[in-house]
């Protein structure tokens, strides 16, 4: 049985990929890349394009719908897990690539659960990646936490009440998936006087990167899915 690797490819800048990730990506037989929309390119795959040897390696782009509807998600997870397991059982090593880190709000976590449950003997290795949070803080030269400070990470989809209480309780609040709740978040940041303490970062590490600290620019911006905020 071959090994299944979950490889974090970092936020989108090839130079932010680990040497271990590069070695494994060059060596595996199959690379499985997630996309949420079939008409969109996989960001993870785009990041590692130059490592791929299409003559030798099989590249599979698998669609995972961007929804919280479990009746659509579970079949996509199950199908991807079965595909990964069948390659590995036939002796072909597989790398599931993921933006940032594979154990940090990644689709791989769901696949991992299924693989462990249904194919418990399958060897699995995780290659950590630089998460979007670290890359965003580095771009803005913004210390995330120091000394006794505490930081909380909230997918904004958790709701505005969670964000409100996090802002009251923690020195640093990181908001992921800000797009669907953007207007409410902007309103909350105004109400709680965080205008001078908010960083907005979109597509960090890519040629489309945007780093905004001016609150009027942040408020006027229309974010895309790959956007986060760090509020001190
Ligand atoms: C499903 S989570 C994936 C997190 C990823 N595994 C990581 O370690 O960064 C997706 C969210 O991460 C954030 N994100 C991921 N990549 C990003 C990037 N290149 N620039 C800004 N935010 C990013 C966005 O908030 C996005 O909605």
Features:
five-stranded mixed beta sheet, Cobalt-precorrin-4 Transmethylase, domain 1, alpha/beta, Methyltransferase, Cobalt-precorrin-4 Transmethylase, Domain 2, 8 helices, binds S-adenosylmethionine
Helix share of residues?
A: 25-40%
Number of helices: 8
Order of helices and strands: EHEHEHEHEHEHEHEEHE
How is the biggest beta sheet arranged? 5 strands, parallel
Count of beta strands: 10
Question: Total domains, how many?
Answer: 2
The end-to-end span amounts to 48 Å
Low-confidence stretches: none
**What percent strand?**
15-25%
CATH architecture annotation of the largest domain: 3-Layer(aba) Sandwich
Q: Which CATH class of the largest domain is shown?
A: Alpha Beta
Net shape = elongated
User: In terms of structural class, how would the helical and strand content be classed?
Assistant: alpha/beta
State the CATH superfamily name of the largest domain: Tetrapyrrole methylase, N-terminal domain
Can you tell me the CATH topology of the largest domain?
A: Cobalt-precorrin-4 Transmethylase, domain 1
Mean pLDDT across the residues is 96
Quaternary: single chain
Strand order of the largest sheet: 3-2-4-1-5
| Cα Rg | 19 Å
Bound molecules: S-adenosylmethionine
Structural commentary:
This protein has helices at 19-27, 43-48, 70-89, 108-118, 132-140, 160-169, 182-191, 215-220, and strands at residues 4-8, 30-35, 58-63, 94-98, 124-127, 151-155, 172-176, 198-202, 210-212, 227-231. With 232 residues, it is of the alpha/beta class. The chain folds into two domains: 4-127, Tetrapyrrole methylase, N-terminal domain (Cobalt-precorrin-4 Transmethylase, domain 1); 132-231, 2-Layer Sandwich (Methyltransferase, Cobalt-precorrin-4 Transmethylase, Domain 2), CATH 3.30.950.10. The strands form two sheets. A five-stranded parallel beta sheet has the order 3-2-4-1-5, sandwiched between helices. Strands 6-7-10-8-9 form a five-stranded mixed beta sheet, sandwiched between helices. Strand 2, helix 2 and strand 3 (58-63) form a beta-alpha-beta unit. The longest helix is centred in the middle third of the chain and has 20 residues, at 70-89. The protein is elongated and about 60 Å long. The mean pLDDT is 96. S-adenosylmethionine binds next to helix 5, strand 8 and strand 10.
